[in-house]
Structure formats: C-alpha cells, structure tokens
Amino acid sequence: IDEARIALMGFSMGGAGAWHLGARYANRWAVVHAGAGFAETARYNRLTKEKYPPWYEQKLWGLHDAPGYVRNLFNLPVIAYSGEVDKQKQAADVMAEAFAAHDEELTHVVGPKMGHKYDAPSKEKVLAFVRKAFEYGREEQPQAVHLQTQTLRHNRIRWIYLTGLIEHWKDSRFDGYFESEAATLVATTKNISSLLLMHPNPDCCGGRNGFSLTIDGSKIKVPPNLFSVPLLRKPNGTWNVGSPPDGLRKKRGLQGPIDDAFLSRFLVVAPESPSGNKLIDQWVAFELAHLQKRWRELFRGDLPLKKTGEVTESDAKSRHLVLFGTPANNPFIADVADKLPVTWKGDAVVVGKRNFPAATHLPVLIHPNPLSPEKYVVLNSGPTFREAHDRTNSLQNPKLPDWAILDLTQPPDAEAAGKVVAADFLDERWQLKPARDN
C-alpha cells in the first residue's frame, strides 16, 4: 500500500464515518470525501436545549463531533457531496459552517434535485477531485500544520504529538508554520501543556543544523541534530525544552472516559461468590449477562470474560481489567480500592467528602490500574451507550465520564445501568475535581 495515496471515502453511514475518521485521523489520508451522513450529535438529532442530556454527556460529544476537529481537515484536500433535497445534506452544511468559522471554504458538490444518492455529473466531479489528490499524494513534509482536538486520544498531526492538555474536553489547538530556507518555525497553541515536536524537515535546507522556534512568543533555539524536541508550557504561559512531570497524569491511551478501555485489549473479571448484598448481586449478574449479549450482537465478538480465580498474572499486566462487584467478593477490586479516588469505606461509597449508602449504590470508574499503571482498571461498567441509543449511530457515543455513582434502586434499562446520582471527570493528574451539582 502506498501510504501517501490512501483515500477515505464514504456515503450515508459511510459519509458519517468519513467525517468522523477523516477529522480525527487526518494524518493518514491523502484526501477525504464524505457524502451525506452526519457530522455531529445535537443538530443531527434535532435536540433542543430542554432535551439535552446531562452536562458531562454534552462534553463527551467532543470525542466524536467532527466540527470540533475541523482544523485537522485543513491539512489535506476535502470534498463533500449532498443531494439537493436529501435530509442528510445537513452534515455538509454543518461542516461548511465549521470551515467558514475558521475562514476556510469547504468544497461541496450538490446534486441538483437529488435525494439520497449521487447523480452522474456530481460523481465525476468528486472522482476527478480524488484523482488529482492521488496524483500529488499526501504531503510528507508540509510547511504548515494544524491540529485541533479535545482529547489526547487524538493527539497527532504530521510532526506534532501532543503529550499533555491543560484540561481535557476543551478546544485544544496547535498551528505551526515552518520556513525551510530560514530554518524557522512559528507556532501558536491553545489549552496545551506539553508536546513533542519532531523536526519539520531535517533533510532540507540545512535542517540538520538546527532551527529557531517561536511558540506563543517564547523563543527557543533547537540545536543541530536534535530531531525530537519535548516542550513544556510553564504556568505563566511561556515554553521551554522539557518533558511532562513524573507521576500519574492523563496521556494518550490513558485519558478516559470509561468507554476508552474498550478500544484496546481488556478482560472482564466476574466475582465467584456473592457479596452478601442481594440487590448488588442481582445487578452484577444482570449487567454481566447484558454485556456478554451486547458484545456479541453489537461488537460481533465473544466477550473476554473470566472469574476471579481464572485470571493469570499475565492477564493482569497485559490487559485493561474491567472489574465487577465490590471489595467483598472481587479480590482484584479489594487490591486497588483504597488507591482509587472513588472507593468504599465501611458501609458507604465515598467520593471526596460525599458518601452514598453502599447497600444501594455502586461506583463506576476508569483509572490507571494502581498495580499496572500503563493499563486501565474499570469498575462495574461496559460501554456506556445502550439499546436506546442503537436507533442511530449518532447516539452510539459515551454517556458517562471518568466516574459515576449509580443508585441501584432504579433497575437497569435501555438508557442506563441505574440512576446516576453523581458523575464527573477526573483532572489531568487523575484526581477528583471539586464537587459540582449534577
């Protein structure tokens, strides 16, 4: 495969995929074409403010909604298509607005009087655009790069790797312009605390002799033959050469939310014995059976599941552990509970200064595993979207942040695993934030 000539193209559901994957993984493509589909959550589903979900779910729209990643699409050719009378023309219109908000214009082909299909002349326009992009190929050493994200899960474009955000789920940007002849790079950032800068063009114009960097006004001289430069933002906003601080912190692949654990190798660990609480035991049994069924039907696989006594040392070190139960009946929970920001103490589930009766409440949580810090530990949760969200792919996105407390007196249903009585994100060091109303 010629990696400089990969096109991402799709129509309808594939058009949605092209918008979402194109914007979040812009580094991979030579050209993106999206026909119809959807690009974001709220407007596509005609949600009015009074019908919006909880605040944390609205923040999590920032994981998928393409308008929040639109600047990534400025790095490559992009063309949209819509039928003139197709309801899904809305997707390209939304993205055209997003382009325009950054003083850019989206190339948008509209099929006259067309519904949810292409007309022949429009299809040929699209394919001619793609062929031209293929002739040129993906630019390997671009002079300008633009990166926009809200999470370190999507942290790279060309020669930029973000390694820290000031706060997740806020608009974060890097815009850089490299002048090869002068060996100068000028960059601006937003909501970024650290990054790794690769040399923009080491084989051109004396690049091996180093270059001058100006980032948010801070001037740094990059010495010769240094092709990977870690940069750290000081509290006063200036930058210098340096790596993120040691210790627990959010980084790519360890940044949450709960659903992130299911994007790589994981193991669900079920208790072998009752907890002594009938309500909790019934809930755990139901949710485990529900997760097994859902994993097969929705994700097309067999759920990786073991009971506590079957888990090997290799399992515990090489996979994210998704633990169900309580410290009373799951020894893996007992081993880590006192090291987690949401935990059990006596007859209460404790979140900072807040207590919830452990007889009727369970925590759900994602956190780096205290016993294997490069992997997650998850408490009492599978993917957080459920059957009610399957009617449209645009709703199959995370419903819970980094932690939540469930009141089990409200039984699981198609919307939720229980009544959410508290929920929030953890901060960039995986610590609790100040309590807020939910």
What keywords describe this structure?
single chain; 438 residues; alpha/beta; seven-stranded mixed beta sheet; 7 helices
Fold topology:
Elements: E1 7-11, H1 13-24, E2 31-35, H2 55-60, E3 78-83, H3 89-101, E4 107-111, H4 120-136, E5 144-149, E6 156-157, E7 160-165, E8 172-179, E9 184-190, E10 192-198, E11 211-215, E12 218-222, E13 228-233, E14 239-241, E15 266-270, H5 278-299, E16 305-307, H6 313-318, E17 320-323, H7 331-336, E18 342-345, E19 348-351, E20 354-357, E21 361-369, E22 372-379, E23 403-407, E24 419-424
Parallel strand pairs: 1-2, 2-3, 3-4, 9-11, 15-16, 15-17, 17-22
Antiparallel strand pairs: 5-8, 6-7, 7-10, 8-9, 10-13, 11-12, 13-14, 18-19, 19-20, 21-22, 21-23, 23-24
**Helix/strand class:** alpha/beta
Give the N-to-C terminal Cα separation: 49 Å
Using the alpha-carbon principal axes, give the shape.
Answer: globular
Indicate the low-confidence ranges by residue numbers.
none
Describe this protein's structure:
This protein is of the alpha/beta class and 438 residues long. The protein has helices at residues 13-24, 55-60, 89-101, 120-136, 278-299, 313-318, 331-336; strands at residues 7-11, 31-35, 78-83, 107-111, 144-149, 156-157, 160-165, 172-179, 184-190, 192-198, 211-215, 218-222, 228-233, 239-241, 266-270, 305-307, 320-323, 342-345, 348-351, 354-357, 361-369, 372-379, 403-407, 419-424. The model has no long low-confidence stretch (mean pLDDT 95). The protein has a seven-stranded mixed β-sheet. It is built from seven helices and 24 strands.
